[in-house]
Structures are given as structure tokens and as C-alpha cells.
UniProtKB/TrEMBL annotation:
It catalyses: D-sedoheptulose 7-phosphate + D-glyceraldehyde 3-phosphate = D-erythrose 4-phosphate + beta-D-fructose 6-phosphate. NCBIfam families: PRK03343.1, tal_mycobact. Pathway: Carbohydrate degradation; pentose phosphate pathway; D-glyceraldehyde 3-phosphate and beta-D-fructose 6-phosphate from D-ribose 5-phosphate and D-xylulose 5-phosphate (non-oxidative stage): step 2/3. The gene is tal. This is Transaldolase.
Length: 359
């Protein structure tokens, strides 16, 4: 068993944070599924910009699409929707074998709609229909408008990966919106057992923002907290998740075979070379979670990562870390809002570059 595949017995699924036509057609993705038990795939505008701009397998199709009377966004979707469909088809066997737990492939709505709830709903429904695969997930940002859209999409029976979550407010808003969406679906007499959603919590970006503030404070207490804040936040968020989905409110939905909304760890490549290069994987393994991992970090974990149940350990220390950060004058919730805005801006910029490619 590979070191990556050894994570699955602890209840966590590993997804690949990358997608390209070359990855599919070379058989590399199939190999990762077979050898490392990769159980899903995520994409975003930055990933597709890199793929389309560097993978020669897109060149001919893009040239043909540019001869057609289409918008740049229509050409982009005409390129990537077949890749999403092909990936869904590749992972369909694991979706079927696990009764819909594994095998998901995510495609993001247009980042320009981040603050437009109805626009997000319409875009998500259109992409869901275009992909036409039960193991697709539509990615929606966890902005205020995105959460409104997310609830409606869950009620409509669409699988969603809601993304760009950076603080406990984001986590709690998203998880409760998921339950409301399922409750509305159940109240309408519709089945709830096939709806799946994940809530993507970002990690390395948190430490990249907080660490310089700790450096600036410069006390031994502050310096000792470097590289610990994101992991502590995730451990606390996981306790919120368990309290909600193992509690009384979800019990009625659980009786109807509804699925809990799993937390997903994103941005899991270690940015600071002074830290353990697999810490955002190794230190956060636990039941009913997903970790979406970039290729480079997968390779590092395959080489020297250790699988163990680490997510539910040292919770008191995690809480103490967040308290210590607050006592040092660092507003974690405000930092989370800044990080979400920064993430939206990055995806906007990547999407604009994508559309430049397909003009």
C-alpha cells in the first residue's frame, strides 16, 4: 500500500488538486487512482489557465473554437466541460462502488458572480446540466451571496463544493446553509440521500498571512505560534462540524439517509520551507473529511508522509493557539475576510487570463 493510500482507512479521502487533458490522456490520473487511491479531482480557474496555456492537447480544439461565433467564456467551457465529463467517467466506478461517497470532480462557476446569488444559481445549474454526471460537483465561493446560492443548489439536488472558507464564521454559515437546503428538500418530499457537498477550508494562505504578523510582534510567545494557526483553526472547525452533524438537528435528515457535508482541506502545499513539507496533510487526517492535494505535495507524502488519525488530537492546544493569537491583537476573523477577498481576486485574475486565451 502506498503512503497516500494508507490515509483512507482513517476515514479521509484524498483528492487531486489538478486537472488537464494531458493528465487524463496519458493515463497518469488513472495510475494515481489505482496506486494511491485518489478519490476525486478538483479544478479552478488558475489550474485551467495553466493547463490550457501549456498543454498542447488543447491547441487544435481551441483553434477550431476560435473560428466559431462564440464568446470567450463559451469557448472556455467548450474546452473544459469535456475534460470534467471524461474525469467523471473515469471516477464513476468508485462513485458507484461507494454509494456516492467517492469519485467527485469539481468545476467552478464564473468568479465574476461571487457577489451575485441568482447569477451563481443560474450559472451552476447550467454547468450541472452541461456536465450531466451524478459525480460532478459545482464549486461556489463562500461569500454571503455564494452561501445563499449554495442553499438553493442543495435544495435543487445539485452537488456543491463550496470554497474559499477561512474562518469559523464561514464554516458555520456554510454548514448550517447545507442543513437548511436539505431540510427544504425533504419538506418538498424530495430524496436527500444522493446529495453530496464539501466545504473547502484553506490552510497555507492562513499561515502566510498570520506568520508575518507574529514575526512583527517578535516575542517568544508570538514566534512559537508560527505555522500553527491554520492547523489549529481546522481542528476547531472539525469540532464544530461534529457538533452539528452528530447532533439533534441533523438527526431527522440522517434518518432519511442524508449525507453530512464533509469538510475539505485546500491550499495544502506548505509554503514555508522551514516547516514540515507535508504538515497540512500529515497533521489533519480524520474521519469524514477530504484533503485536496497538489501534485508536488502528493509526491512528498508518497515519499515520506505518515498516515495516522491526527485531526482529533490536541484539541485543547488548538483552542489555546487561537486564544493566544487573539490575545496578541491579531483578529483572526478579520484575517479570514481579507483572505477570502484576496482569494476571490486571484480567481478573478486567473479567469480573466483564461478568457484572454480563448478570445
Amino acid at each position: 500500500m502506498s503512503r497516500i493510500a494508507a490515509i483512507k482507512p482513517f476515514g479521509q479521502r484524498i483528492w487531486l488538486d489538478n486537472l488537464s487533458r494531458g493528465l487524463l490522456e496519458s493515463g497518469e490520473l488513472a495510475r494515481l487512482i489505482s496506486e494511491d487511491d485518489i478519490a476525486g479531482v478538483t479544478s479552478n480557474p488558475a489550474i485551467f489557465y495553466k493547463s490550457i496555456s501549456s498543454d498542447p492537447l488543447y491547441t487544435g480544439d481551441l483553434a477550431e473554437l476560435k473560428k466559431q461565433d462564440l464568446t470567450a467564456e463559451q469557448r472556455y467551457e467548450a474546452l473544459v466541460v469535456p475534460d470534467i465529463q471524461a474525469t467523471c467517467d473515469l471516477t464513476r466506478a468508485m462513485y458507484d462502488a461507494t454509494n456516492g461517497l467517492d469519485g467527485y470532480v469539481s468545476l467552478e462557476v464564473s468568479p465574476t458572480l461571487a457577489n451575485d446569488a441568482q447569477g451563481t444559481i443560474d450559472n451552476a445549474k447550467r454547468l450541472w446540466a452541461a456536465i450531466d454526471r451524478p459525480n460532478a460537483m459545482i464549486k461556489v465561493p463562500a461569500t454571503d451571496a455564494g452561501v445563499v446560492a449554495f442553499e438553493e443548489l442543495i435544495t435543487s439536488g445539485i452537488n456543491v463544493n463550496i470554497t474559499l472558507m477561512f474562518n469559523l464564521k464561514h464554516v458555520d454559515n456554510v454548514l448550517t446553509a447545507y442543513i437548511r437546503g436539505l431540510e427544504a428538500r425533504a419538506a418538498a418530499g424530495l430524496p436527500v440521500d444522493k446529495v453530496q457537498a464539501v466545504a473547502s477550508v484553506f490552510l497555507s494562505r492562513v499561515d502566510s498571512l498570520i506568520d508575518p504578523q507574529l514575526d512583527a510582534i517578535g516575542t517568544p510567545e508570538a514566534l512559537a505560534l508560527r505555522g500553527t494557526v491554520a492547523k489549529s483553526f481546522v481542528k476547531v472547525a472539525y469540532q464544530h462540524y461534529k457538533g452539528l452533524f452528530q447532533g439533534s438537528r441533523f438527526a431527522a435528515l440522517k434518518a432519511k439517509d442524508a449525507n453530512p457535508q464533509r469538510l475539505l482541506w485546500a491550499s495544502t502545499g506548505t509554503k514555508n520551507k522551514a516547516y514540515n513539507d507535508v504538515m497540512y496533510v500529515e497533521d489533519l487526517i480524520g474521519p469524514e473529511t477530504v484533503n485536496t492535494v497538489p501534485d508536488a505535495t502528493l509526491a512528498l507524502f508518497r515519499d515520506h508522509g505518515n498516515a495516522a488519525n491526527t485531526l482529533d488530537t490536541n484539541i485543547d492546544a488548538a483552542v489555546a493557539t487561537l486564544v493566544a493569537v487573539r490575545n496578541l491583537g491579531i483578529n483572526y476573523n478579520l484575517a479570514g475576510e481579507q483572505l477570502q477577498e484576496d482569494g476571490l481576486k486571484q480567481f478573478d485574475e486567473a479567469f480573466a487570463k483564461l478568457l484572454d486565451l480563448t478570445k
